[in-house]
Design brief:
- The longest helix has 18 residues.
- The protein has three helices and two strands.
- It has a domain of about 45 residues.
- The protein has about 70 residues and is mainly alpha-helical.
- The termini are far apart.
- Helix content is about 55%, strand content about 5%.
Amino acid sequence: MTRGKQKIEAQKKNAEKNQKSKGSQFEARAVALKVTCPICKVQLANQNQLGDHYSSKHPKEKPPSDLS
């Protein structure tokens, strides 16, 4: 069991450690999602997912060719 200064230092260290691990992942999500469906504006990670998206959500439409 720690007392006094050791306890305060341990609490500060744990608070900093826990604070760094928390947070939103919006930046990472924005970097990963690079392809956008022109019809419904859904963001996808790659062209293969776009093809799957078109086959399931827009079956009457033809998927666009590789734009990248």
